[in-house]
Structure to design on (277 residues):
């Protein structure tokens, strides 16, 4: 097997740091390295960061799996019958004669120490469950990492629900320094800095930042993060608008307020980012 092909170098490592998921990262990488850690499913709402966490975990796990890593994004797949074919295509497995495809995949993967990542499984859950069940029974060294809105329900599945990033409970008297202690706010500032070098969270700019994301005048930044439920994708989309911010002294009522939520993300946003990469 060509290990370099399987590691999908175009995906790893991620180009931006992981914020607020350090404990989850440590737990899932430790679990997947164990002999019994053969199936782990990251679950949670769209935009909570499942794909991003999986990417960072895979980058760290790369040296662990002698036969490599294989990433399959199932978001574009609309027909459940094609799920095994997607895996076969990524592996370079062809379908000669009348031999069933699942048998070919089993022969190819049997005995190999490999991590298979299936991203965005929720709309194909029955087909994914059947494929994973078949392969896990016959390929004892295969480990599987899934991202999905829902778990598969398979025996031996470790389900890891991702909660939204940490948020302040109240924003009434919150200072910029206090807000910066929360993961959701830290993510916003980190992404905003990437598109507007020199950007910093201050007492003067938090209301202007909020105005970019919500149709509420004077809404503090921390409250904005609450309005998007602490979902990393929504926060990132809001941060991307920072270059459009007016001077902090401009009255909020003069600012064109822009809605920002995962449900209203731009249609052109890449499919691989839809779950918070």
């Amino acid at each position: 097997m060509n290990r370099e092909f399987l590691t999908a170098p175009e995906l790893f490592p991620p180009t931006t740091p992981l914020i607020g998921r350090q404990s989850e990262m440590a737990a899932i990488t430790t679990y997947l390295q164990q002999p019994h850690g053969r199936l782990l499913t990251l679950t949670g709402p769209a935009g909570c960061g499942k794909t991003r966490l999986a990417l960072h975990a895979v980058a760290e796990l790369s040296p662990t799996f002698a036969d490599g890593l294989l990433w399959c994004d199932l978001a574009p797949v609309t027909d459940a019958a094609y799920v095994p074919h997607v895996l076969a295509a990524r592996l370079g497995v062809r379908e000669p004669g009348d031999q069933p495809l699942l048998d070919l995949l089993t022969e190819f993967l049997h005995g190999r120490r490999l991590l298979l990542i299936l991203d965005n499984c929720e709309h194909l859950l029955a087909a994914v469950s059947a494929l994973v069940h078949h392969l896990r029974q016959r390929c004892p060294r295969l480990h599987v990492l899934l991202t999905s809105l829902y778990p598969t329900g398979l025996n031996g599945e470790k389900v890891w629900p991702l909660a939204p990033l940490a948020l302040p409970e109240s924003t009434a008297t919150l200072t910029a320094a206090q807000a910066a202690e929360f993961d959701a706010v830290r993510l916003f500032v980190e992404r905003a800095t990437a598109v507007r070098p020199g950007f910093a969270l201050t007492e003067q700019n938090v209301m202007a930042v909020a105005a970019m994301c919500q149709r509420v005048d004077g809404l503090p930044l921390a409250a904005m993060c609450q309005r998007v439920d602490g979902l990393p994708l929504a926060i990132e989309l809001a941060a991307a608008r920072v270059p459009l911010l007016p001077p902090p002294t401009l009255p909020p009522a003069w600012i064109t307020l822009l809605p920002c939520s995962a449900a209203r993300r731009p249609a052109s946003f890449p499919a691989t980012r839809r779950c918070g990469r």
